[in-house]
Amino acid sequence: MKRMTTRNWQEELTWLVDAYRAVLPIKELLSRIQTQYADGQVWTTLEFQDAVIDVVVHDAIVQKYAPPRSYTYRFLKQYTDAIERVMAELSDALVAELMEFVAVGRMTDRSAVDSEEMHHVTYRVPRQVARTETDITVTCRVASVFNEVGLKIWEAGWFLAEYIFAHPEQFEDRTVLELGAGVGFTGIALAKCVRTKKLILSDYAPRVMLNLRYNVEINAADLYLSPVDIDTVDWETWDPQHDSVESQPDILLAGDCVYDVAVFPYLVRVLQVFLGSETEQDGSQPRRVGIFAATIRNQATFQTFLDTLKQYRIEYEDITVESTKKMSDTPLFPYENREQFRLCKLYRSIQASSQ
């Protein structure tokens, strides 16, 4: 018989649903559960245990786009162990859910736990931040073991999405090309909250492209505000002049593409061909611009990028401080701090355009 609930657990546990969908560290989830619901040890009650199963583990998005089975198993096992340590009664629903994961797939076998190559993560953006009528969610299939750079979400991509949420007017009615889109998180977030003229998400490796297309398709059920295309872009040969007029971008977007000195010549080449036809514009259209977000892992590497831009007469404008003023005080996504990022706009220098 289902217990009568006296609290709105659906609303109270929104934070836990968000954390679970995003596959955040289990230790953090359990610590907050035990701290937030410490009075009267609410976190050990049968009602609360049932709510965790009904609201979190059986969440509709989680059921459709699941985290790794190993993650669910560890969450249930560690939560059960914590309850048993304080000698509280276990809910039948919690025990049944745990036993299913023990019996199906032998999740206690380490080889089974480590065998999952891909899983889903979902992030919710409140409507007040996305400036939409309802909250938006972005779901991406990512690699469980990050041996392919294009199959994970990079932190600068999260930061770039926050910039978009805070400055939607910069993208409205523009044609946007995202370089190195990877799993597509930033571009999908853009498509869900801003009406661009057209949005093109690009990458190169075949496996990455297949996954990118999958992620665009599974998010399409929520309806994009922008038309979204997928394109393979080779940084060594791409030329926007070969595209149809309506597909020629006027904004080049990139998150965490500035990390490897070896690819700088190709990245700058893309910027050159994108910005190089600046003189052909009659001034009636907004100036073409690259908007790049980078994680500063090595200052020398980033300085090399800046030096390369200067060498090829590409104007760099650091907009990090200015841009964060319009963002929420606390990060929306699970990165540690904003000081690690640089956000910039890139233009063809006026001097270069006039030559």
UniProtKB/TrEMBL annotation:
Pfam family, one: Methyltransf_16
Stored SUPFAM superfamilies: S-adenosyl-L-methionine-dependent methyltransferases (SSF53335)
Protein name: FAM86 N-terminal domain-containing protein
